[in-house]
Amino acid sequence: ESYGTLYAYKKRHEELALVQRNCTQNSAIALMASLKAVELLPPIRSISNSPVICEVSGRIRVLNHGYHAINGGVFVTGQKSIPDVPVIKAVKAINNLYRDFNFQSPADKSRAFAMLITPAMKMGGFFSQPTPIDVAEANESQSGKTERQRTCRRVYGEKANIITARQGGVGSLDESFGQAIARGTAFIELDNFRGKLDSPFIESAITNTEAVSVRLLRQAEHQMDISSTTLQLSSNGVEVTPDFANRACITKILKQPDGYQWHPWSEGSLRQHVEANQVYYLGCVFSVIKEWHRQGKPRANSTGHDMYEWLSILDSMIINIFKLPSLMTGHRATQEQVSNPNIVWLRAVCLAVKKNDDLNRSFQAFQIATLCNDSIIDYPRNKTFYDDAQAGRHVGSLMAGLFKHAKDGKIVVDGFEVSRDIESIYSDKTRNTDATKKYRINVQIHDD
Asked: Distances in Å between the alpha carbon of 327 and those of 99, 232, 312?
């Protein structure tokens, strides 16, 4: 109705009269499915609530409200105007925006900034190759991992299609993911996943630069372009396949100490602040992209990730404009950790030890098995034991395998350091002195 006045014939006094009417839903569906609609309507690759930055004939251009026949067809629904922000102010503002997030390392901050810039680059068609899924992982709940991803979406004025892990009920994860793709949202989030995530369909969607096949209820299979869609996943300890890990950018956040006070923004919460200043922060993102373009679109000679084009471009921005460490500093170890079920299990044990205030205490294998039982920690590959002694032997076997590859006799996992000591303990039962392995978990100490 906003593009013209619609009329329909209505019978009045045995005669047909042309009167103004709105289009009914059934009529709209029929019109959209008609051959003329397919032939005449222009293609749309992406829909955005906010203006989109792109490159046209070697120049940076910002696409405002309406349809734009570039990059496969871009439709901007919002009518906002994005301000020009000097790059120095933009970098300072983005740093300030993330001031309350306790990143596990400086490189985790680099990855968070990269995943803030990436959606704009995807929507603008700056990448010819796929980009990684944004994985947010935290050591405890309420650490701010999901809030970081929500902050990113608010900067773009978008809401995500949220997918949660289901333990039962109708519909698989792949089915829910396919429905989310069909809705055409700019962001899709796999929210608060735990345990094992193994979906070849999702892994394929991450790397697909063309169309993804989606089958909807009572409909034929559709080919859908998700090259401009940003995928996100949040977790407190997910186990993924090696292929999934290689297609992820993993940002780790630690929970702030008890009593920590988040910055008091003048608008109220961080959410209210970003929503009130959304166009300014999007202008900051655009400013960083414009500066990278002004510098000649440099690429860093970086390695360590399967998605090289994305890494080389974003690493150049992060190192040269934000003056932060390379995105891949420590990232390979993180990828190996989330794809190794034994390390995922050990991480959960470390977190439980910290929660129980038992750091720097020696544990035997059977005591760790008891901890797993009390803290409801699943063993790798969902193994179950009905006998405590059998569970203790399995823990000893897991630890032996982990320490087989340990450097300097220590295992480092997510800021924890696990060491193993062998003590001679006298047994009244056997009347012998036996060599007993004991394990000690501490917070990792970094050398300055």
From this structure: 19, 17, 10
Distance CA 72, CA 76 (A): 13
CA–CA separation, 123 vs 441, rounded Å?
45
Can you list the alpha helix ranges (DSSP code H) found in 263-385? Answer: 270-276, 278-294, 308-320, 331-338, 341-355, 365-374
Question: DSSP class of residue 382?
Answer: G
pTM over 0.90: no
Bridge-based pairing state of the strands 211-215 and 221-225 = antiparallel
- Say what angle helices 278-294 and 308-320 make with each other, to 10 degrees: 100
Nearest 5°: the CA angle 89, 92, 93 is 85
Q: Half-sphere exposure of 46 toward its Cβ, with a 13 Å CA cutoff?
A: 28
pLDDT in tens, the chain (448 residues): 677 888 888 887 778 888 888 888 888 888 888 888 888 888 888 889 999 999 999 999 999 999 999 888 999 998 889 999 999 999 999 999 999 999 989 999 999 999 999 999 999 999 999 999 999 988 777 788 899 999 999 999 999 999 987 654 446 888 888 888 888 889 999 988 877 888 888 998 898 877 788 876 666 677 888 888 999 999 877 788 889 999 999 999 988 888 899 999 999 999 999 999 999 999 999 999 999 999 999 999 988 888 999 999 999 999 999 999 999 998 888 888 888 889 889 988 998 998 899 998 999 999 999 999 998 888 887 788 878 888 999 999 999 999 987 877 888 887 789 999 887 776 776 677 777 889 999 987 554 4
